[in-house]
Please model this.
Amino acid sequence: MQKIRFRIKRFNPAKDRRPHFEDFTVEAEPETPVLDCLHEIKWHQDGTLAFRRSCGHAICGSCAMTINGQNRLACQTLVKNVGKNIIVEPLRSFPLEKDLIVNLDRFYERFYSIMPYFVNNSPPPDTERIQWPEDQELIDEAASCILCASCTSSCPSFWADDDYIGPSALLKAYRFIFDTRDQAQKERLALINTSKGPWKCHTIFNCNEACPKDIDITNAIARLKLKLNDL
Amino acid sequence: MVSWALHRLSGLALVAYLCLHIFVIHNLAYGPERFDRVMELLGSPAFKLMEIGLLGVILYHAFNGLRVIIIDFWGGTKIQKQLFWIMMVIAAALFVAGAAPIAGHLLNALAH
Ligand code: SF4
Ligand code: FES
Model:
């Protein structure tokens, strides 16, 4: 057990005019997830601390926050990954609700704007719709996105213009546009072929660095640009 | 992100240089004497030093730009950091090759 110092950005919309930092100390093992430390604080030190979490196993995407300057999942990040002085802040560029909770309406608006669902109007076969392994490989990585918003929140193009569809929603567009079973490729390409689409990506790589699932998002966006070029 | 931020800054510097360049060239319209006077000013050590800086800015912008083009058209996102350093090594070699003669002139001018 060692003492870990936490510096957490707090904001209570009922009282505070702007966010401020508060310090906490937690006893933890090197292998303790940051999320458990936040629980320790909330359950035993300050019950008013607000943050999102659900699964605790890096699969729901709720607990994304900025830990020591980098967007990460609190449940996946261990104390030993980030050191003994840990600064926790809410995700950048989304409106702040309370403490570590941000408003993700904008994020989901972008997500829904690209038709994030499978379209195939041919009658379904008796079993699943068959796909070759090579074809599946194209979208395997993209399909493992957990919608945590870490990438979009880390993107300077999104900081400058939150009308930008953003890396996460573009990755989702890629996931369906490159799905050989999907039939709405044209509609989706038309939806993203605007000044707010892949053209706003300047190959900065912040999304790739932020993604807790190590998805090569920048590559997906580059493939979308090429696809749009071929139209 | 640092490579991108430097790319933006070097781009701005190049725009500023372009304005200066057009301004210098526009002196041609006022006849050879005035142009010669401006050119003399540009031959001064301070401008030589700035020329070396300009070379560096151009090389950075060009080679990082090449890296982005490669990534956009052919891929390489997984090795983007290595690509960056490969490009910077090439740019640095060209920088030394280009800056050496200018620095030579500069030292010559200072010696006299
Ligand atoms: S691509 Fe990665 S960082 Fe972006 S929302 Fe999906 S899992 Fe999160
Ligand atoms: S709590 Fe579900 S991803 Fe962290």
Observations:
- Chain B is about 90% helix and 0% strand.
- Helices of chain B lie at 2-26, 32-42, 45-74, 80-111.
